[in-house]
Amino acid sequence: xxxxxxxxxxxxxxxxxxxxxxxxxxxxxxxxxxxxxxxxxxxxxxxxxxxxxxxxxxxxxxxxxxxxxxxxxxxxxxxxxxxxxxxxxxxxxxxxxxxxxxxxxxxxxxxxxxxxxxxxxxxxxxxxxxxxxxxxxxxxxxxxxxxxxxxxxxxxxxxxxxxxxxxxxxxxxxxxxxxxxxxxxxxxxxxxxxxxxxxxxxxxxxxxxxxxxxxxxxxxxxxxxxxxxxxxxxxxxxxxxxxxxxxxxxxxxxxxxxxxxxxxxxxxxxxxxxxxxxxxxxxxxxxxxxxxxxxxxxxxxxxxxxxxxxxxxxxxxxxxxxxxxxxxxxxxxxxxxxxxxxxxxxxxxxxxxxxxxxxxxxxxxxxxxxxxxxxxxxxxxxxxxxxxxxxx
Length: 392
Ligand code: NZQ
Ligand code: ZN
Fold this sequence. Notes:
The chain is of the alpha/beta class.
């Protein structure tokens, strides 16, 4: 096990009707908030009315900025920064999914950054200050409700890049699984693929003596798979959404990666797809991940045998290690398809013409020296191109 530093200060208020408490929860921290949200689902569901009533009842003033798109755009972040500065906002309340929360995080640090906030995404220099953030989560997926990350799309440059800082972990997040009932079915699949990927990026490692986190990763993966099937049968199954919601936070608050070398190649490869083709993050991950597994498993086959047996339920006696791994990958692919996810780039509307460009961008070749991806196996642009071709 490697040395680590684990600090997750985000308070999670979980359960039925918890969103009604948002005003009281924020009262000690804010006099004026920016209410940040997406394309309108919160107005349709009535959540907007609940939240604004709770803020008003607690004497919290607010200004609002809606319109965050999936794959959140830099242009709206700029608008939000200006608005917060003009209005003297002292906390950002993000009501939505990963896109809204990530946009809120970019605004929160942009308020204190002299210059274009995009600089920080391109050159990951540390920040010293950010506005506090609170969230009401409406989709279990990105894990941004307790993570240090934000991922923003610069639409002018066809780039989607992550940035991370401990200062961006939300102060508090409210999670009522009933708010997930209104999700379109395809978002369930996207969310589950993303949450599973957050675990895979940590689970597949060459670090040894990681029994505890191995077990936690495996239990969280199995929880996600079991409850994804239940929720896809019945989109108002509270208990299934409760398991998915809690698992999503655990998958990405950092705990499962402590003491382990992490990978993150699938996320970097996927961000290239979203940047150019604006595909949902989870859909891109569902395509790329089995291809990555196929390409890298021989690097440390024991880790993949463990995955196939402990998570995908392949019998340990199944012929030989290669056959066990192949069966594990096949079962994962089948599971993704079962919950409505795509299996190929073609299904995502991505043709062969820009694969090489994306492989090179993933390893930063257009911006300077090549930086290979991955902790489990180092991947250069030619490897990434091979993986894209495997899932074409
Ligand atoms: O915009 P609205 O109208 O709210 O609709 C959204 C959006 O269209 C809809 N939705 C959300 N909750 C709903 C709902 N519709 C009906 N009922 C509800 N309760 O769902 C759509 C997708 O929302 P989005 O926020 O984009 O989804 P998600 O949470 O999957 O976030 C994806 C983004 O998170 C980033 C991804 O790259 C992507 O941009 N990630 C952020 C991370 C982080 N900050 O730590 C880590 C992740 O790896 C990920 O990269
Ligand atoms: Zn993700």
